[in-house]
């Protein structure tokens, strides 16, 4: 089955897909900045210093983020680094602020877009026209982003490319028309009488940096090895931030010279375009601005998606929240972001100033945390093996930490009454949510370390087959016609394996006992046990299974609540879908698709698979990367596994796709298997099984798969057979 990559191929593609936010910042940051300068008499004195201060801040922060991209490649960016170096508290604070920042980026971008449209079409200046336009554009943007990063690059990439071109055209036109006039730094800007204006301007211009962290979270969206992805992400950052800084230095003085702040109905950037460009081109520039602001909103959504994937792998959000769709992106957080944005637009309006006051407040806290984590890692590395390069990198990270911490304090003081206090409410709420999820799911399994240890050895020890499995079958029915579909499968399996079939009636109706006796008489030709067992509900199903001595349970999903059985029983559970096509409402255990993810918990399926191979079953192992950078290691792991089992029967391997459940469904259809086999838990580990009865993959398969599903518990000792441990594959000499 061919897998179509939806990943980004290089730095330019990444810049186009995710660079809309920082590239669009010159379109709106100068308005608040110039209005602040207009309040005081020292505007000309204080104009240049904040711009150069921002330039220096971008350079030192970018140098540190280059290392972050190299260290953390799973999409969690600074959050991942903070967890590794500072502990879980830091990553939860970091992630909480990042979630808020991505949402604010989305809000500011859409609001500024609506302002650009209203500049040219005054009829849309009213509250409801602006709000309606903002809601529609929010939903359209998220829909396109959820079609994958390459779709976003195709749709929004031209807009980002256009604004990059527009900025360079304006830079060239400005130089040609006015000459090159860079902002001048005057010492008087730092005198006590003017310092508050200088610092206030610096705070307002820092909004252009809110997009810089998206490139660290975008690392997971590139193709190639981890090192290649990090290099491409940093290249994307250089392309976009270089253009933005050039625009700040050249266009800033031009805007200051030509903008008329009394024309409040037209943004200062639109005034600059009207001054520099002929009328048709000026209107075209506005159109470019509209599309690039859509691109900025899309980039924030992409960043949130990739952050969600990283947090999912670290068990700070539920697996369903970071589940990839068929376009290889996490769709749920994007739709949640759209819903929040639409609600805020309706409640608070669509003027960007409403959200811009909060825009830069949180980002410098997370930049400071990330820089501190980078200092800690570099310091530890330098102590072990000091080099001149490490000393320089450490000094740069320390400078970044100092600059970002100072900027964060300054922003919160300057903007506290404008709304920065809201971080004190939202961060604890998100922190608590992350903490509860991590406590529920437990720490993640270190798959990479385990695969590396297995592959480093010459041979792999695969556990032996379960002897004579299945040897007793428990069939669950509830009197419904659908439930009888499972009985048909049980009859076939009982006849094939010569395993007694035992009925278990679930329900409170007295008529069920007579019904069970009738079914028992129908099974007279099949090895069977005593009279059916009767249960009022499934809570005591484990007791019934142990009394019967069964080692396989059979039931129909979607009736009687039987889909709960894999989380209740300590034996494998075969689930049939009564609504499936006729050919897929039974299984003969002959053509199996077996899902593995490299975790010890998932390998509990192997003894059962070997037992079925001994009876002639054809096996296809599916190893589906659920993270990034796993494909090569998983492929080698699968090759070693197949090599160990090749002498026992017909076995092959598929390493493809992303999103285990979705890919297993696709493979089951394309390979036309009659049974899909998975463990109850995988890379999430079995330590959480007391709280999470069933992992995300079998839960998703129960909803989407329309073929028989065999779920084998990861923590059990099969009754009447040799014990199966969760750490079944070991390296051996």
Write out key terms for the chains shown:
3 domains; 58% helix; 733 residues; Amino acid/polyamine transporter I; alpha/beta; single chain; disordered N terminus; 10-stranded mixed beta sheet; Rossmann fold; two-stranded antiparallel ribbon
Spatial shape: elongated
Q: Roughly how many Å is the radius of gyration?
A: 30 Å
- Residue stretches low in confidence (pLDDT < 50, at least 5 long) are 1-5, 716-728
Q: Any idea what the CATH superfamily of the largest domain is called?
A: Amino acid/polyamine transporter I
Q: Which topology of the largest domain does CATH recognise?
A: Amino acid/polyamine transporter I
Strand order of the largest sheet: 4-3-2-5-6-11-10-7-8-9
β-sheet strand percentage: 5-15%
Helix content: 55-70%
Number of strands: 12
Task: Label the CATH architecture of the largest domain.
Answer: Up-down Bundle
The main sheet comes to:
10 strands, mixed
Average pLDDT confidence is 83
Number of domains: 3
Number of helices: 28
- Structure class: alpha/beta
CA-CA gap between termini: 35 Å
CATH class of the largest domain: Mainly Alpha
Oligomer: single chain
């Amino acid at each position: 089955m061919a897998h179509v990559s939806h990943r980004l191929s290089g730095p330019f593609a990444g810049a186009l897909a995710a660079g809309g936010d920082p590239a669009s910042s010159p379109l709106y940051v100068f308005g608040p900045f110039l209005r602040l300068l207009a309040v005081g008499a020292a505007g000309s004195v204080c104009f240049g210093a904040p711009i150069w201060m921002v330039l220096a801040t971008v350079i030192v922060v970018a140098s540190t983020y280059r290392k972050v991209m190299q260290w953390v490649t799973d999409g969690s960016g600074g959050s991942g680094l903070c967890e590794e170096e500072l502990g879980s508290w830091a990553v939860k604070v970091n992630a909480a602020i990042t979630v808020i920042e991505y949402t604010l980026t989305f809000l500011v971008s859409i609001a500024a877009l609506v302002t650009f449209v209203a500049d040219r079409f005054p009829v849309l200046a009213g509250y409801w026209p602006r709000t309606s336009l903002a809601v529609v554009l929010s939903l359209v943007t998220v829909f396109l982003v959820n079609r994958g990063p390459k779709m976003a690059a195709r749709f929004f990439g031209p807009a980002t490319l256009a604004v990059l071109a527009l900025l360079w055209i304006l830079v060239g036109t400005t130089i040609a028309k006015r000459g090159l006039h860079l902002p001048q730094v005057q010492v008087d800007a730092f005198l006590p009488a003017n310092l508050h204006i200088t610092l206030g301007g610096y705070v307002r211009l820092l909004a252009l940096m809110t997009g810089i962290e998206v490139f660290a979270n975008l690392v997971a969206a590139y193709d190639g090895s981890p090192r290649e992805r990090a290099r491409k992400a940093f290249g994307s950052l250089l392309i976009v931030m270089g253009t933005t800084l050039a625009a700040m230095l050249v266009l800033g003085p031009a805007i200051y010279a030509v903008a008329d702040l009394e024309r409040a109905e037209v943004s200062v950037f639109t005034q600059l375009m009207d001054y520099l460009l002929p009328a048709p081109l000026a209107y075209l520039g506005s159109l470019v601005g509209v599309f690039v602001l859509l691109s900025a909103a899309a980039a924030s959504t992409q960043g949130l998606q990739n952050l969600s994937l990283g947090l999912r792998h670290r068990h700070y959000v539920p697996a369903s929240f970071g589940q990839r769709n068929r376009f290889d992106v996490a769709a749920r957080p994007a739709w949640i972001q759209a819903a929040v944005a639409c609600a805020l637009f309706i409640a608070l309006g669509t003027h960007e100033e409403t959200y811009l006051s909060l825009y830069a407040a949180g980002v410098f806290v997370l930049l400071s945390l990330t820089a501190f984590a980078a200092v800690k890692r570099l310091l530890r590395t330098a102590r072990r093996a000091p080099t001149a390069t490490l000393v320089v990198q450490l000094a740069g990270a320390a400078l970044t930490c100092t600059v970002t911490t100072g900027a964060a304090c300054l922003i919160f003081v300057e903007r506290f009454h404008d709304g920065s206090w809201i971080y004190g409410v939202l961060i604890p709420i998100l922190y608590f949510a992350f903490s509860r999820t991590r406590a529920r799911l437990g720490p993640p399994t270190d798959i990479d370390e385990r695969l590396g240890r297995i592959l480093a050895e010459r041979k792999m020890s695969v556990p032996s087959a379960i002897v004579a499995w299945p040897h007793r079958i428990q069939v669950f029915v509830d009197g419904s016609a659908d439930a009888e579909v499972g009985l048909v499968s049980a009859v076939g399996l009982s006849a094939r394996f010569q395993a007694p079939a035992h009925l278990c009636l679930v329900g409170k109706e007295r008529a069920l006992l007579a019904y069970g006796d009738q079914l028992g008489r129908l099974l007279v030709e099949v090895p069977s046990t005593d009279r059916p067992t009767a249960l009022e509900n499934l809570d005591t199903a484990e007791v019934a299974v142990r009394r019967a001595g069964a080692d396989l349970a059979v039931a129909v999903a979607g009736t009687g609540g039987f889909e709960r059985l894999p989380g209740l029983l300590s034996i494998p559970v075969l689930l049939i879908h009564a609504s499936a096509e006729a050919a897929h409402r039974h299984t003969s255990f002959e053509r199996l698709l077996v899902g593995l993810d490299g975790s010890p918990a998932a390998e509990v399926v192997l003894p059962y698979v070997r037992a079925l191979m001994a009876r002639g079953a054809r096996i296809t192992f599916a190893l589906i990367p659920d993270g990034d950078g796993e494909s090569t290691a998983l492929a080698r792991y699968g090759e070693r596994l197949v090599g160990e089992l090749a002498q026992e029967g017909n076995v092959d391997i598929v390493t493809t796709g992303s999103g285990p459940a979705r890919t297993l469904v696709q493979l089951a259809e394309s390979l036309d298997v009659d049974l899909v086999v998975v463990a109850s838990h995988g890379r999430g580990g079995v330590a959480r099984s007391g709280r999470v009865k069933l992992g995300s993959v079998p839960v998703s398969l129960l909803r989407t798969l329309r073929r028989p599903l065999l779920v084998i518990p990861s923590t059990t000792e099969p009754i009447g057979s040799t014990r199966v441990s969760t750490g079944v594959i070991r390296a051996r000499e």
